[in-house]
Amino acid sequence: MSPFVEVILTIITASTPLLIAAVGELVAERSGVLNLGVEGMMVMGAVAGFGGAFLTGSPVVGVLCAIVAGMLMAAIFAFLTLKLVSNQVATGLALTLLGLGLSGLIGEHFVGQPGIKLARLDIPGLSNLPIVGPIVFGEDPLVYLSIALTIAVSYVLFQSRAGLIIRAVGDSHASAHALGVSVVQVRTLSVIFGGACSGLAGGYLSLAYTPQWIENMTAGRGWIALALVVFASWRPGRVIVGAYLFGSVSVLGFVVQAVGVTGLLEIVGQWPGEIQWIVVDAIRVVTTPQFLSSLPYLVTVLALVVISKSTRSRGSQAPACLGQPFVPDR
């Protein structure tokens, strides 16, 4: 396999959990619920997915366990915010802390255990094609599922009656309630769907991306998924672009460090005077592991700053009732 193909495959693998989690959160936010507990649901999905696969020997069981774990965490959030009308921001942060702590407790005995990797597809005659074969026909099933899920969510939101109801609840829950729509029920189902996606994204990390369990292995990906929803202006099609952009940033930095640093230094070494030392020092700083690890998060912050300025000039595209509590008339 050529280095180019390996880099592309790594980018796809790094982008898939971001895409799955962001699509699920997008549906929840379209219904008017801001769930900041994506990180907690993802890490619970990761430990449940690894544990289910490790104990049964089946990665499919692991995937199902990851989905169920995410749904249970989302159900807790839905009960607290939609039934008891607690603050959504505070509850979401508490859910993240709960997930990080509980996953560490549950996964204590899984640390260092060999993982069961989710197998890639092997289509005779297609997967062996040069370049195109492994990229298009040799991915694991969840990569194809993430694309199909994004297309399905886009269709449901903008081409179906169910999607119209979800968007109506998110834009004006009082009007939707007046028309006979059960706002709490719609939001509950949307939040649980988002939890299922977050759990699946976490399971992908421990079953496909790095088939092992490491405490806090989500490493802030849940926060990136939250930022992706804003980056995509709450549109599923743009989430794909954002997910693969951030996945590329997280991978290409290490590629530069491993392959291109020596060549860059050799080129710069021929430059005269102080410019050479300034550029050499800049290259060495930029290609340090610490900087490269922070690069996806720096890009996230910069993207949100740009979007914030654009929003001020054009107006917000967020659902009008996002984060606002709703209490049905009694």
Describe this structure in words.
The chain is mainly α and 330 residues long. The chain has a domain of 230 residues. The chain is 74% helix and 0% strand. The protein contains 13 helices and no strands. The chain starts with a helix and ends in a 16-residue tail after the last helix.
What is the compact description of this entry?
With 330 residues, the protein is mostly helical.
What's the SSE blueprint?
Elements: H1 3-30, H2 38-56, H3 59-83, H4 88-106, H5 132-136, H6 141-159, H7 161-171, H8 173-178, H9 183-209, H10 221-231, H11 236-268, H12 273-286, H13 289-314
Helix pairs in contact: 1-6, 1-9, 1-10, 1-11, 2-3, 2-4, 2-9, 2-10, 3-4, 3-9, 6-7, 6-11, 10-11, 10-13, 11-12, 11-13
Which short descriptors sum up this protein?
mainly alpha, 13 helices, 330 residues
Beta content: under 5%
Number of strand segments? 0
Q: Span from first to last CA?
A: 65 Å
Succession of helices and strands: HHHHHHHHHHHHH
* Structural shape: globular
> Helicity range of the residues?
over 70%
Radius of gyration over C-alpha positions, nearest whole angstrom: 21 Å
Structural class assignment: mainly alpha
Average pLDDT rating: 86
Q: Which consecutive residue ranges, at least 5 long each, have pLDDT under 50? A: none
Number of helices: 13
Major sheet = none
